[in-house]
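Posting this for the archive.
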Amino acid sequence: MQKNKEELLENLCLVHGLENNQGYADTLIKDIKLFRISCNEDILPLLYNRGFIFIGRGMKKGYIAEREFINTPDDYLMITSPQPIECETCIYDEHSMIGLYVNLDMNRLRRIVSKYNEFSKYSDTNKKVPYNVVCNKRTDEITDVFYRLLKILQSELDSKMLASSILDELYFRILEDTSGYILQQLCEHGSSFSRVSKVIEFIHKNLKEKICIEEMAELAGMSPNNFHRIFKEALNDTPVQYIKKVRLNKARQLILHENMKAVKASEEVGYDSPTQFNREFKRYFGASPGKVKELGYSGF
């Protein structure tokens, strides 16, 4: 089946203009993007959006503080809220790394979780604040769903007719897996994890504004100290560190994908001082904003 999956992915690259290029491409399904990386890449910070990442060929190593994960064709990566991750790409036998990014649609997830809880005896015995990013081995059921997604992506009619039901099944299979409780907590109104997620959404919508810890804690319905602790448990960064990394990653995306000048990009993400922005950008990425295109792609 692995060879067949690689052939299906290669055909998608051919159809969507990635046969001889690296980057991202929309597919016939709105919530799914195809990606291809054609060379080994050293450790580089990337901003991962909320979703699931399935690699069909190659390997991706990720580092979040002291944590390390390895995403291979036998695994899947789950990101429940946008998070900056330091990543390293590994290519085998001169072949490109190819895979799919599946957006995590919260409306779909809430519907699936609600229905799942009607028929299952789910009980959250794990009250610890979960990690925002986890990498798990694919179960046979998840592997089968991934394969069927690849097949329907070859046909516009199949995609239109079957995408919704197969995505529903994918969410269900992941919900049943070992980290399903994380998705449960994400949907559980009032859980610490869902309240942190709400704050992260607020941060991304208000990057241009000054955001203080007291404002975030109030939004989460927690004391500043408690919010700071829970946020760091989930994302391995303090709120201030997280905001800085997101701002720098977003600025990089604006420069790279929208050809925005560095000064303008820094303003768009909330920097008052171009000098401070340039200094922090170079410290974080290892290159100045003027050399951003040499850094490659900017996130998932």
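The chain has a mean pLDDT of 92. The chain is about 50% helix and 20% strand.
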